[in-house]
Amino acid sequence: AQRVTQPEKLLSVFKGAPVELKCNYSYSGSPELFWYVQYSRQRLQLLLRHISRESIKGFTADLNKGETSFHLKKPFAQEEDSAMYYCALTSGGFKTIFGAGTRLFVKA
Amino acid sequence: EAQVTQNPRYLITVTGKKLTVTCSQNMNHEYMSWYRQDPGLGLRQIYYSMNVEVTDKGDVPEGYKVSRKEKRNFPLILESPSPNQTSLYFCASSLDFRTAINYGYTFGSGTRLTVV
What we know:
The complex is a heterodimer. By secondary structure, chain A is an all-beta fold. Chain A has strands at 3-5, 10-14, 19-21, 24-26, 32-38, 45-49, 60-61, 72-74, 83-90, 96-98, 102-107. In chain B, 6% of the residues lie in helices and 49% in strands. Chain B has one helix at 97-103; strands spanning 4-7, 10-13, 19-25, 31-38, 42-51, 54-57, 65-66, 76-78, 87-94, 106-107, 111-115. Chain B contains one helix and eleven strands, in the order E-E-E-E-E-E-E-E-E-H-E-E. Chain B is mainly β. The A-B interface holds A 4, 6, 9, 32, 34, 36, 43-46, 49, 51, 86, 88, 90, 94-101 and B 31, 33, 35, 40-45, 48, 50, 56, 58-59, 90, 92, 97, 100-105, 107-110.
């Protein structure tokens, strides 16, 4: 069965510290993985996708098929990064499964 | 402005009283979907639609109905709401499913529903 696991409900770091939001997935095929972000009082929006291998707002995520992980990383967290982050997996079955989310809190 | 519009933003209703949450997109998107967001559970897919008159169940379809009579609209219908359907609901769309894989979804601003 397809599953996306985000083991941390809350992650609190100081400004300037590195941050890593963990995401593990379970899927027998070749997954399409995304990170979405939801800032306070805003709608959910796409942050980045694994196929583009891009860096958005300083965040990167590498797909590790061996470890079935897609962790989101940023070397120096900023206060404006405080938000809810969701890892998502889209399969060929026309469904997208989201993890439970991790709330990132960046302290000044 | 290209967007997904949901109405209402907030709704409080009583058990058993039928309600409809509307979702409309102005981007000519074929793929539309409904999610509910609950603390600790994240977003769970209720129903999705690949195109007009083509809908299918997501992971938590019980107690919900949808229709897709025209491309721009994808209403979510609760025939007999119950308190366990109290949640934050999101509508999402994409040009098509292949675009969703490559570029993700456009989400609406959400509808907070409370059933008492």
